[in-house]
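Journal club side-thread
Mid-discussion, someone asked how the predicted structure for our own chain would compare to the paper's figures. Pasting it here so we can look after the session.
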Amino acid sequence: MDPDFHFDSQSPSPMSQAHWNIDSTMFQHEGFDVTYLPVRSNGLVDLERLASAIRPDTGLFSVMAVNNEIVPFHTDAAQALGKIPIDVDRMRIGLMSLSGHKIYGPNGVGALYLRRRPRIRVEPQMSGGGQERGIRSGTMPTPLVVGFGKACEVAMKEMDDGRRIAALQERLLKGIREKLDRMVVNGSIEHRYAGNLNLSFASKGNEKMGILRLD
């Protein structure tokens, strides 16, 4: 890629620090211009602000979840795999990172989805024999690859429609609210995976939290 290309990356939520989807400092060291965009108080991306930040030389932006048809879109789907349906065409995903251990597959194996049309070009992770269309040279660890594939197959079969997880989330949230006051849900309660519930508590100490019991 041309070093004049411009990269946009999502800033962590102001409520909690999170790891970057991509190593943006690496791009900066390579001479790229990286722009960091803040998120709203509920953790969601301000799409108008994102649109205004896209320049003619923008080469990529990376967020956890957004739909855009102008520049390549990368998403870190490691936590979503096996939990929610992922349609790369409907979501206009250009690049997608996946990890095996998140779905009870082997440790040390993952996958990177690259859209073919329009074709996404990336720099090789390592050079050598030219395997994986020149993107990742070297012999693949067959047992890990097979294990990852099987884990994806099982996760696909066992993935529910979300209603059971949503009911459990509602039950947990209701139980906590009945026993503790001054509790805040971090992020949007509507636009989130039901299996994730991030809360903040205003209490005088750990004693009150320690005696919390839910049926």
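Post-session note: The chain has two domains: 6-158, 163-210.
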